[in-house]
Amino acid sequence: LFPVFLHWFLSRSTAYITLPSILVAGPPGAGKTALITRLERRAPKPATTYTSQTTNIVELAVNEDGSSSYSDDLDASGAVAKKFLVIDTPGHGKLRGATLARLTTASSTASDTKLRAVVYMVDSAALAEDGGVAAAASYLYDILLALQKRMGAGNSSKAPPAIPVLVAANKADLFTALPAALIKTQLEAELSRIRTSRSKGLLSSGVGADDVDSANESDDWLGEYGSKAFSFAQMREFDIDVDVVAGNVVGGTDSGPGVDKWWRWIADKV
Ligand code: GDP
User: Fold this and answer.
1) What CATH number does the domain located at 2-205+219-269 have?
2) Tell me, what's the ipTM?
3) What is the pTM of this model?
4) Is the dihedral of CA 170, 175, 179, 182 positive or negative?
């Protein structure tokens, strides 16, 4: 449904075809809707919001050199603004396939080439709970693998523009929230585990070891092929930068780092 909606949306208004976009993804409850709503409300003008049952698209702006705050009134200052879209995608398991397909296909349509970055939001407090890391890592694994495949897709010498990933460690205002450095290592450890179990799946899927197409196997291996432990740094081999940055949508800067660092990161990518 998401690609269908996006296609309908983009074809409906040619103005939007050229706008750079940021995809917000993550497990349900991470705070994606809260973030998009907050950025929209504090935006200089009430942002244009497009809502469907599953997808939320907000148009935002940053000044030309990317230094403005999300709460600056760019119209009042007479600044030349760069407009961009923030697209909140459904975190529900059943709807993830469409988002992933979007990332994998190195399609030549304007909407895809304008995708500038992915913000993967997690609940830093939920990560401290049983099964929290596993729940947050599985979708991240799929997203990173999709982006990695996209870089490798097609044999043309011209690789598509790299799409960086921000792991937005949300809800840093809660005292049970894990710090960003710990979230990074815990996600890396879980992504290593997922990688190991999926590669075993490949080998024990009924085909003899000799029949396993090693080219395909390395295609489905996240990060540095054959490495024991996964680290986000391995994604650089595919030109994909991954940053883990703590913040909070609720509570402002009194209770945590707020959203400013995320905004800076996004402004730098559009
Ligand atoms: P989504 O499913 O990812 O879109 O998550 P929502 O935006 O619906 O947020 C889920 C819940 O987390 C809501 O009750 C939000 O109010 C809450 N929430 C979002 N951001 C924060 C935050 O920074 N701190 C705290 N304490 N709660 C948050």
Assistant:
1) 3.40.50.300
2) 0.99
3) 0.84
4) negative
